[in-house]
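explain this:
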Amino acid sequence: MKKIEAELLELLQIVGPSGEEEEVVRYMKPRMEQVLERVYLDSYSNLLGELVCGSGAGPTILLCAHMDTVNWMVPGRQVLRDGDVFTSSAGILGADDRAGMAIVMAVVRNVGATNFHGRLKLAFTREEEIGRYGSKAMDRAWLNDVDLAVVVDRRGNRDIVTSRGNIQPFCDPSVGAFFEHAGTAAGMPDWRAVQGGISDACTFASYGINSVNLSAGYLYEHTEKERVDLNWVKETTKLILTALDMLGNQEERLFPDRLCQFGR
């Protein structure tokens, strides 16, 4: 967890609006190569990675955040800090979704301290903000063995988004209950399954993959008031690591392998 603050600050400095994520890739790819077994760009230039954890015999979990920001950062702006809260001196901060990326990387660096025996797949997607084009372009065959997709792109803290409003369920109800249970096990009993909006979880759920979208710790995204709380970022990291640890225990397999209740 020691690197998450520095990495978040560095990610917030990188300009990468939708369609121009190259600098984000240049920063993140060598860092992924230090902790993952395979790292590469797919045909749409999404940045993907894979890691076998422990025996590798358990479930395959996809961790996802998007690389693009909603629009250009103001040239010369600065990232300001007040305690554990970061803001921008002008324009957007870009914590949506650089905070999600920092959380995913912190999970990978610390998963070895958990009881998780399975496979992790990472996806840092392009062009989420303008229509989820990156996640939609991902190879379905690469996603075919994914048992659970954990997207980290929700505002605020302690939200487990399990549906797009009343329009699209993302997962079997037991998945939301599982993450609430993980929150309690991690000493954060107020994590709650809620409805939410559009994210890459919509894409993965449409393929029949149990999916959630977790709070990434930012507020007021897409505005000059955008901010991110480092404590909230660490709490989401802790939640995911706790969930992975629980999935390493055969007795804690609390949800179906696929989205069996409403089809694929």
Remarks:
- The chain has one domain: 4-252.
- The longest strand covers residues 118-125.
- The first helix runs from residue 4 to 12.
- Helices lie at 4-12, 22-33, 95-110, 133-137, 140-143, 173-185, 200-206, 230-247.
